[in-house]
Write a structure and sequence with these properties.
- The chain is an alpha/beta fold.
- It has an 8-stranded mixed sheet, sandwiched between helices.
- The chain contains 13 helices and 8 strands.
- The chain is elongated.
- Helix 10 links the parallel strand 5 and strand 6.
């Protein structure tokens, strides 16, 4: 199955929740009037796109309908898609870290899929020929080190860790030293995500950043926030809280395939002005996909997607299983090599 097909399949629940409702309006309305706009607005808000973002989308839609003299409701469907996509446009190279020595801090609360995301990202970077080191700097979370070690082995990455409860900055210092000694291209750092005490988190991340700036001054630096899309507006709140503590360069949305709240991708990118860089649309390593707003909107509004998904499922049932599926719950690995 191709990446776009996987994206369509992974967005099926969001499509059923948001787009099916919107299409019932587009295909059922007899005219473009206040009731038509109100119904679309309500569906977008309920789909976790958010009130502020929805208001801007609706303002843009109404303006374009007026300027382009659109009379038929269905003709405005494409305008809505373009309006949502416009809100998600970004500038610059979002994946600069693939092209130069880089440190990637990965931040997120327990249960959002942070460990699994680090493992998948490591595997993808290794497939590009990058020399990757994973550093287990979330030293206060139970079993974090063991779970990351499984992923380091699976993705053929090097692994640096400390003792439980050790100062995370000291683990990062050891990892930075290893990165210099071993010619590392990418240093992936699992950092803590305890939002209940933002001062301690800020102090901890501050120490880690000072170590990186001192030991790896020439490395490009990223700070990626991992949130669970299934939690909807709570994911937005978490991303906002973390962004107030760290200079976030991107967001990774996990578990999109199990959620009807994929609209949160629009809300995060537009309300926080932080680009969504990856989305998780399945359990396989390749299901952590780079986020493409245009492809996202096309897949979300694809009326043929459900038929395509049914055909893909039939093909998958006919294929032999190759194993190796993983869950985006932190540390869960179903392959034999993950059993420890």
């Amino acid at each position: 199955m191709g990446l776009f097909s996987k994206l369509k399949q992974g967005l099926s629940k969001t499509r059923d929740s948001i787009v099916s409702g919107i299409d019932s309006v587009f295909y059922g309305a007899s005219s473009i009037d206040d009731d038509f706009y109100d119904e679309i607005e309500e569906i977008l808000v309920m789909g976790d796109i958010g009130i502020n973002t929805t208001e801007k989308i609706m303002e843009d839609l109404k303006e374009r309908v007026r300027k382009e003299h659109i009379k038929e409701p269905l003709e405005s469907r494409r305008l809505l898609m373009e309006s949502i996509e416009k809100r998600m446009e970004t500038e610059g190279d979002l994946y600069e870290f693939e092209k130069k020595p880089s440190v990637i801090l990965v931040i997120g609360v327990n249960g959002v899929g942070k460990t699994t995301t680090i493992g998948k990202l490591s595997a993808q970077l290794r497939s590009l020929g990058k020399n990757v080191i994973i550093a287990a700097a979330d030293t206060f979370r139970a079993a974090a080190k063991e779970q990351l070690e499984v992923w380091a082995k699976r993705s053929d990455a090097q692994f640096v860790y400390g003792q439980d409860g050790q100062d995370p900055a000291s683990v990062v210092f050891d990892a930075a030293s290893a990165a210099k000694a071993r010619g590392c291209d990418i240093l992936l750092v699992d950092t803590a995500g305890r939002l209940h005490n933002k001062k301690n988190l800020m102090d901890e991340l501050g120490k880690i950043n000072r170590v990186i700036d001192r030991e790896l001054p020439d490395f490009h630096k990223e700070s990626l926030i991992v949130v669970d899309s299934a939690t909807g507006q709570n994911a937005l709140s978490q991303a906002k809280a973390f962004s107030e503590t760290v200079d976030a360069t991107g967001v990774i949305l996990t578990k999109m395939d199990g959620s009807a709240k994929g609209g949160i991708a629009v809300a995060i990118q537009t309300q926080l002005n932080i680009p969504v860089k990856y989305i998780g649309v399945g359990e396989q390593i390749e299901d952590l996909q780079k986020f493409d707003p245009k492809a996202f909107i096309e897949a979300l509004f694809d009326r043929n997607a459900d038929d395509d998904e049914a055909e893909d499922n039939e093909e998958d049932e006919a294929m032999p299983e190759d194993g190796g599926e993983v869950s985006e719950d932190d540390g869960a690995v179903s392959k034999d090599e993950g059993a420890k």
